[in-house]
User: Which sequence fits this backbone?
């Protein structure tokens, strides 16, 4: 009976390792896609800021008595950018924590499976 458990563990181990490797690969792909989306959003956000700033400069130079209105819009854009930076930093921190958690869980699962397999082999012997 013990040899059957050991034999089953021996056959299952490569499949378990392949499953863990597959899940790691999926996590890596997901992390890379997330990073690319963030970079794309950041570039778009930067271009939008440049466009708004250029528009405000043009409007300020081509119309009279708009200093207060332009200053108010610039202040609102600055506040929005500040909020964006805070959200962006928080999102990165959450992503880093999630990444570390997945890596720790994968490592712990691998160690637990290895330990259980070794324990089964010792009992069979």
Assistant:
């Amino acid at each position: 009976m013990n040899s059957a458990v050991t034999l089953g563990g021996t056959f299952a181990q490569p499949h378990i390792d392949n499953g863990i490797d597959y899940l790691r690969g999926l996590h890596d792909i997901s992390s890379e896609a997330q990073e690319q989306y963030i970079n794309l959003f950041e570039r778009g956000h930067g271009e939008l800021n440049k466009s708004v700033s250029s528009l405000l400069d043009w409007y300020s130079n081509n119309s009279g008595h708009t200093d207060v209105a332009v200053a108010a819009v610039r202040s609102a854009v600055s506040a929005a950018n500040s909020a964006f930076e805070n959200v962006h930093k928080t999102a990165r921190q959450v992503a880093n924590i999630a990444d570390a958690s997945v890596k720790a869980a994968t490592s712990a699962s691998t160690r637990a499976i290895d330990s259980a397999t070794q324990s089964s082999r010792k009992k069979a012997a």
About this structure: Residues 112 and 118 are 10 Å apart (CA to CA). Residues 2-124 form one domain.
